[in-house]
Amino acid sequence: MSILSIAVAALLSQAALAADVTLQTADGIELHGIHEPVAGAARAVLLVHGERRTSNDWKFLQGKLQHAGFSSLAIDLRGHGTSQGVGVPPLPDETYLAMTADVDAGMAYLREQGATEIMLVGADLGANLALAAGAATTDASNIVLLSPGLKIHGIRADAALRQWGERSILFVVSNDDGYAAKSALLLDAQARGPKYMEIYAGAGKGAAMLNREPACEGLVMSWLLGSHDITGDQAHQDGPTIPTQGSAVQTDGPSMQDVLGEQ
Prior knowledge:
Elements (H helix, E strand, L loop, with lengths): L2 H12 L4 E6 L5 E7 L6 E6 L10 H9 L3 E5 L17 H6 L1 H13 L4 E7 L1 H11 L4 E7 L4 E2 L2 E2 H8 L3 E7 L3 H13 L4 E6 L8 H4 L3 H10 L30 H6 L2
Parallel strand pairs: 3-4, 3-5, 5-6, 6-9, 9-10
Antiparallel strand pairs: 1-2, 2-4, 7-8
Helix pairs in contact: 4-5, 5-6
């Protein structure tokens, strides 16, 4: 057998095909997930999609993660994809608040599969959910927030960020999503651990940035691998500007000043 054949065989023995799995939340909801396993991998990534999206958003990133030696799990949140509770949107706020249990179930599944280090990646609504659930446990060591909002369907990112403490955090936003960009700037100023913020130009929102901005996927991967060079704790000063007029900023609740003023 050639050296190349041996190398290919070794890779195939480590990486298995993606599998559809079923998870059960603490409050009895059945969730669908896509698990990309890597034999013997201690590091795992939980991927949490955005509002009205599904686990399919992470298909290509999961492949990259697997090749880098990470196991990964992409879940369909309740009321989304093929998970229990699918209905006609909008869902009530109580349902969104309960979705932190979906993230908890995802982390529990990865622990059961042998992961000893769990990292989180979330997109818009999923970013807030991942931060809220991850902050409440010591299991999550690192997080990537794609287009977080200060408050989305009652899920507050600033309150969760205080509980997140000094763990690592990456903020990624686009200047054409004014609310997420402004939210991330405020959150970045409050983050206490290793952090970095990237503002892209015209890259869209949430997981869409992985496709629309060529550099985004590489940034996320380097952050999870721990190879990203943090040259400062502020957003790029020479990067894209963020809209400042109210017409460019949409929220589903109180103003940022009102939210930050709440205790």
